[in-house]
Design a protein that fits this description.
This is carbonic anhydrase. It catalyses: hydrogencarbonate + H(+) = CO2 + H2O. This protein is α/β, with parallel strands linked by helices. It has eight helices and five strands, in the order αβαβαβααααββα. Helices cover 40% and strands 16% of the residues. It has two domains: 122 residues, Beta-carbonic Anhydrase, Chain A; 34 residues, no CATH class. A five-stranded mixed beta sheet has the order 2-1-3-4-5.
Length: 191
C-alpha cells in the first residue's frame, strides 16, 4: 500500500467520524498574527504548543529556514495577504536551533540534485539565464542571522505599514523554549 492510499483511507475515516468538527474555525486568525517558520518536522506540533496556538489562532507559513529570500516572492505575498485581507496585526518570524539551513551551500544542494538525475546542462542553463542559484540555495551561518534578515525584509517592506510589529524568535526544537531576538514592539516605538 502506498503512502497516498494510507492518507486517503485515514481521511475517509476522519470525515466519516466527523473528527473535523473539533477544528472548525474561520479563515481569520483569532490572535491576529501571522507566523513565518521553518518546515522542520520537529516543529509541526511543538511550535504551536510552545506559542500557545490552537487551530484558527494564527496564519502559519512554512519554508526552509524561515528565510524570506525575495521581498516580492510568494512568502512575502502571503504575509501581505494575511495582514490586509485576513486582518493579522503582528508578524512573528520563528527560526530554530539545529536548522538544516545552517551552513547549507548551493554546491551541496546542486551535487545532490545531480545524484538524483538533474543534468549539468540544466544547471548551467539556469545559471546562464541569470538565475542566482548560489544565492537562492544558500542558507545562513547562524540561525539568528536568518531570522534577523527575514524580520528586516518584512519590517522594511514598502507595502506594509511602519506600525506593524514584526518579531523574531528562535525555538529550541527539543524543549520548545523560545528566545526573543527581535522585539517588534520596540522597533515600532523607535520609528
Amino acid at each position: 500500500m502506498s503512502l497516498v492510499n494510507d492518507i486517503l483511507n485515514h481521511n475517509n475515516e476522519f470525515v466519516e467520524n466527523q473528527e473535523y468538527k473539533q477544528y472548525l474555525t474561520t479563515k481569520f486568525p483569532d490572535k491576529k498574527m501571522v507566523v513565518l517558520t521553518c518546515m522542520d518536522t520537529r516543529l509541526v506540533e511543538l511550535l504551536p504548543k510552545a506559542m500557545n496556538l490552537s487551530n484558527g489562532d494564527a496564519k502559519i507559513i512554512k519554508n526552509a529556514g524561515a528565510i524570506l529570500s525575495h521581498p516580492f516572492g510568494s512568502i512575502m505575498r502571503s504575509i501581505i495577504v494575511a495582514v490586509y485581507a485576513l486582518k493579522a496585526d503582528e508578524v512573528v518570524v520563528v527560526g530554530h536551533y539545529d536548522c538544516g539551513m545552517t551552513g547549507l551551500n548551493s554546491d551541496q544542494v546542486l551535487n545532490l540534485a545531480k545524484e538524483r538525475g538533474i543534468s549539468t546542462d540544466v544547471i548551467d542553463t539556469l545559471q546562464h539565464s541569470g538565475i542566482d542559484l548560489a544565492g537562492w540555495l544558500t542558507g545562513f551561518d547562524h540561525v539568528q542571522d536568518g531570522v534577523v534578515k527575514s524580520v528586516n525584509i518584512i519590517r522594511n517592506h514598502p507595502l506594509l505599514p511602519k506600525n506593524l510589529p514584526v518579531h523574531g524568535m528562535i525555538i529550541n526544537p527539543e524543549t520548545g523554549k523560545l528566545d526573543l531576538v527581535e522585539d517588534g514592539y520596540a522597533a515600532v516605538l523607535a520609528e
